[in-house]
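The instructor's notes for this session suggest beginning with a concrete chain rather than abstract definitions. Hand out the sequence below and ask the class to guess, before any prediction is shown, which regions might be ordered.
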Amino acid sequence: MTSTDAARGLEERVAPALTSAAGFLRAPFSAATARAVAQLAVGWVWAISAGLTLWICVVVAAALVPALGVGVPLLALSLAAARWYGATERGRLELQLPVRLAAPSPLLERRPGTARESWSAMWAACRDGRGWAATLYAFLSMLLTSVFVVLVTAAAGGAVAAVALLFVGRDSAVVDWLHTGLLHAAWPLTVAIGVALGVVLLWTAALLAQYGTLVQVQLAESLLGPSAADVARRRARAAEQDAADARERAAVLTETRAGAVAAADDERRRIERDLHDGAQQRLVALGVELGVARRLADRDPAAAAAALDHAHSEVKETLAELRDLVRGIHPAVLSDRGLDAALSALAARSTVPVRVQVDGDLGGASQAAQAAAYFVVAEALTNVAKHAQASSALVTAGLVPDGDSCRLRVSVSDDGRGGASAAPGSGLAGLKGRVAALDGSFDLHSPAGAGTRLTVEVPCAS
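After discussion, reveal the predicted structure:
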């Protein structure tokens, strides 16, 4: 948010009558006006009591400083009191108005050990810029609240007087003065003037109250908040923290991307091995069987037919292996029918009873996110069947909001023996790396004897 946006937001909260036509029309009857009037009244009493006392103490102490430094301790104490006054004033404004005022950086306190160090500490307190700013605020607030209290009271009193004129009647001195001395106005015209004047003064009082409160809040932000140096230091620290977070994030991304590349290489080698040891060998055997059938076709038709039957079986088994291999790369049901149906298919193939619960439409997640969720569930259900000794499992999936976007969350839980871990080299470790490469989160909770719950979240736009 820019400083212009922040200022605009402050005006809309404190003085809506100055920012919109609707706020202007509702000004005399709005809660903002009631808060502004209360703030001015309390602020005026506080300023002419505590604020004036603080101002006098600081001025007297500063005047005594040239007298051999007699006023230095008093000035240091007075400026410390000014900081307390500023904190109290910020709290009062936040209590009465819908604002939040930042506090200045604390004055660095050093424990004096010697008389020289005590004197240096007092001089440092006397040079406290925020203490002097709070003192200036006390003086300006006293003037500001006095002026606006007088103006608002005068305008509101004038509005009441103008309306009261209607009930006084024609025999009042004011009506006589308007009729004979100034306007020579008839009674109906006098009534109209009184009503119009009352309305104008009522709106004027509301606008003055809101404007005076806005000026007071802006003055407090400037003099009671952090100094420009404080703001610069805070921004520098925030920038350093952002830079550190960015470096850490870059290191994590580098590690996860390297893991993803390694996982892709492992997957490629697995596919090559499966093709070489499975489908390729079957195709070679199929070629041999077909050659035998061709040679025996003329002299031994029965043997040729048996060879063709065996070749046909080899073809079916090869196709089944290829389907399993392709399913391991990217399941067709995921592309054709979506993640909901793909999860149901995994549950149907599991040897352990599995219940699938999908919350809402999962189509908002990208294909990469859905594929990652699918393989997480597939690996988790495989582990449940092999190791968990569970009697049932539950798979849940849904989209959860994440700022302007969303995240795809899948969870697999069982009632088995627990004790699962994503140890290096395990299937769960590979899934963890795959999820991390998509900038997702991987949470495994598996206490011994209490079942296992695996929860994964990946950005929908992965």
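Then share the key points. Strands lie at 354-359, 393-402, 405-414, 441-445, 452-459. The mean pLDDT is 79.
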